[in-house]
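[[Per-residue structure]]
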Amino acid sequence: MGSRMGSIFHNDLRISNCLIDRFENHTGEVCGLEWRSDGLQLASGGNDNVVNIWDSRLTSNAIHTKTAHSAAVKALAWCPTQLSLLASGGGSACKKIHFWNTNTGNRVNTIDTESQVSSLTWGYSNGIGKEIVSTHGFPHNEVSVYSYPTLQKTGVIMNAHEGRILNSQLSPNGTVLATLGSDENLKFWKLFDEPPMEKDTTPSRIEKVIR
């Protein structure tokens, strides 16, 4: 969890002394945290306009500190099919989505959304492939969908809420986006197709016996 003082506390609630580590590199409130799916890297965003990338095995210092945003960074999303790809979104004075290669620390793409970025989520559509959806606050309060890596806008829901969108979450099957707005409404949007299942090439026990 992140604190207003800029500290990040790594807790394991399965044990009595649950604090197992502490990350220190933000000078403002921590307002975004996202673990990579393999648990090896943590992304943090702060009111200091900074994105930090941490290696869970080397916690004394951030492995990358990125200062490309000009506003607080709340929105963070790891690509599920490309583990080293991270998207980060800036607040109302920034309005940009930056894409990072977290192995090298290099910025690989940028989108100027012209609106406060409040959340980011990766998805998949048939015929298009990998996409990223961004939700927004002022001035548009919209939901936008972009293909990746072409960055072409493939869809938009204008004025999705009467107030700014605070956050979003994708359904377990990856097709429906839930958005929460400052208008106190929770809305559901069918945006994506189910991603194709990866074929398991591991021989079954029966095949092993036959061989």
Helices lie at 205-210. Confidence is low (pLDDT under 50) at residues 204-209. The chain has one domain: 7-197. The CA atoms of residues 54 and 62 lie 5 Å apart.
